[in-house]
Amino acid sequence: MNVAFVAHDHKKDEMIQFVIAYQSLFEKHTLFATGTTGGLIMTNTNLDIVRFMSGPLGGDQQIGAMVAKNELDLLIFFRDPLVAQPHEPDITALLRLCDVYGIPVATNMATAELLVHALERGDFSWREVIHQCRPTNIAHRKIKPVETKVTAQTEYLSDANLPTAESQ
Ligand SMILES: O=C(CO)COP(=O)(O)O
């Protein structure tokens, strides 16, 4: 799965502690982050992370572009609710897009921990269905049957609700 990490300045230590705690799980996934958050995680762990720009310089929007292409499976975004950010519109836009595309988002450690356990036990398998429906996979006939755990999401992703080449 594609997992992205973002943390505001006062939440960066919390993010590092969180990622260290679940490092062995995150090793199995493809990781992305805004610039400073990603740099700090890489300094403090052995994880490889694709780093975007720093948040205020466009990093949130770059992650938003992944969401808009339905390429992101999980966003862990430790926001600082007590400090106004100069790039608030970018933050709102990123979270809005996650709701548009139904991407699981954690904005605090308590929720992040629940989602990480869900990731570990296979509750994200419905995302494989979405990946199979990407235009490139359809064009190159890379579609193979996907085993998914039955969840409300898999039920919701009936043929009628699946993204198509036209809708992407
Ligand atoms: O500001 C951010 C997200 O809105 C985080 O960006 P950095 O990881 O570059 O500090």
TrEMBL record:
<comment type="similarity">
    <text>Belongs to the methylglyoxal synthase family.</text>
</comment>
<feature type="binding site">
    <location>
        <position position="87"/>
    </location>
    <ligand>
        <name>substrate</name>
    </ligand>
</feature>
<feature type="binding site">
    <location>
        <begin position="54"/>
        <end position="55"/>
    </location>
    <ligand>
        <name>substrate</name>
    </ligand>
</feature>
<feature type="active site" description="Proton donor/acceptor">
    <location>
        <position position="60"/>
    </location>
</feature>
<dbReference type="InterPro" id="IPR036914">
    <property type="entry name" value="MGS-like_dom_sf"/>
</dbReference>
<feature type="domain" description="MGS-like">
    <location>
        <begin position="1"/>
        <end position="168"/>
    </location>
</feature>
<comment type="function">
    <text>Catalyzes the formation of methylglyoxal from dihydroxyacetone phosphate.</text>
</comment>
<dbReference type="Pfam" id="PF02142">
    <property type="entry name" value="MGS"/>
</dbReference>
<protein>
    <recommendedName>
        <fullName>Methylglyoxal synthase</fullName>
        <ecNumber>4.2.3.3</ecNumber>
    </recommendedName>
</protein>
<dbReference type="InterPro" id="IPR004363">
    <property type="entry name" value="Methylgl_synth"/>
</dbReference>
<feature type="binding site">
    <location>
        <position position="8"/>
    </location>
    <ligand>
        <name>substrate</name>
    </ligand>
</feature>
<dbReference type="InterPro" id="IPR011607">
    <property type="entry name" value="MGS-like_dom"/>
</dbReference>
<keyword id="KW-0456">Lyase</keyword>
<feature type="binding site">
    <location>
        <position position="12"/>
    </location>
    <ligand>
        <name>substrate</name>
    </ligand>
</feature>
<feature type="binding site">
    <location>
        <begin position="34"/>
        <end position="37"/>
    </location>
    <ligand>
        <name>substrate</name>
    </ligand>
</feature>
<dbReference type="InterPro" id="IPR018148">
    <property type="entry name" value="Methylglyoxal_synth_AS"/>
</dbReference>
